[in-house]
Description:
By secondary structure, this protein is an all-alpha fold. The chain has one domain (about 25-295). It has 15 helices and 4 strands. The protein is globular and about 60 Å long. The two termini are about 20 Å apart.
Amino acid sequence: MPALPGGQQKGAWSPRFWASFLACGVALAVAVPAFNHWVPPDSPAALPDYLVPLLGKYLCYALLALSLDLIWGYAGILSLGHGAFFALGGYCMGMYLMRQVGTRGVYGNPLLPDFMVFLNWKELPWFWWGFDHFAYAATMVVLVPGLLALVFGWLAFRSRVTGVYLSIITQAMTYALMLAFFRNDMGFGGNNGMTDYKDILGWDVHQSSTRLGLYIASVLALGLGYLCCRFITASKLGRVLLALRDAESRVRFLGYSVTDAKLFVFTVSAVLAGIAGALYVPQVGIINPSEFSPGNSIEIAIWVSVGGRGTLVGAIVGAVIVNSAKTWLTGAAPETWLFVLGTLFILTTLVFPRGVVGLLRRPSRIRTRAAARVPAGERA
């Protein structure tokens, strides 16, 4: 028999879970800074400075994959435009970082970013107002992706657009945004985007200590994002989402508000993706319209599929595994990466549809089923 919601909630927050969660948190938030900052640079155990932002980038990708797994793995909403929310959060942070440059830019203009001076802009556009304050920028990181998801989701879910049609619409959305942000007259840097950042909250973004701080912020964001997603999926709403994924018409017939449930998780997912984009930009040093590319959103779905859809942990594992392989292969054999990526997608579809985490959990599931078949008297 299926577990009751209360039992599922209790099991989701068991001491074993908290022990595993805290162990991973300590490993990420303590071990990496220790090997980077306190171990002598000439030691074989030392972590080079260039690896810290790279690991931070992987964590941002993991949070992005987690946001997609929340809606795809549990609600059955395959968004092929989730990179749009990631890019919008990144652009909000990029606008703040550009406002911090001031007179240190190439043209020395205290009021306009360098790309606006180059394009002969005379004054700062109204939508740039307030981005010289971090609190305002952080608010926009949450509001802009969230509002877009709220409006888009309300229109789509209210019209009962589902399945492949919804995936196509989300892909069209991110492609339209990419074309818009490529335009120089949009005021977002055109095809070159925004780069040459100087500092964040007064700290030089090129200093190793700042990069370490951004890495720790990424660890905290991923941890809080994971707890948020786990709270949703382990609650009664999570049970409703699973029912929506498997039999939406029956859930609607039972009287549940399908539109409200989908809209809530879709908006939360977009906010998490925006936060991931905001943390990504200062660590990689650039944001441009290529982040809106539909191919990027498809790649996010591959991360989740490789790790294990509907597991949360699998999304994190898949993002780290695929991007680590991408970093290595694009340096060792760049022409083979797309073939490897396509092969991974085929393998996860045909060979191990439950992903890496599903393969690891398979022996325990087999043992559980075998124990369930044993009569109660024999078990005693």
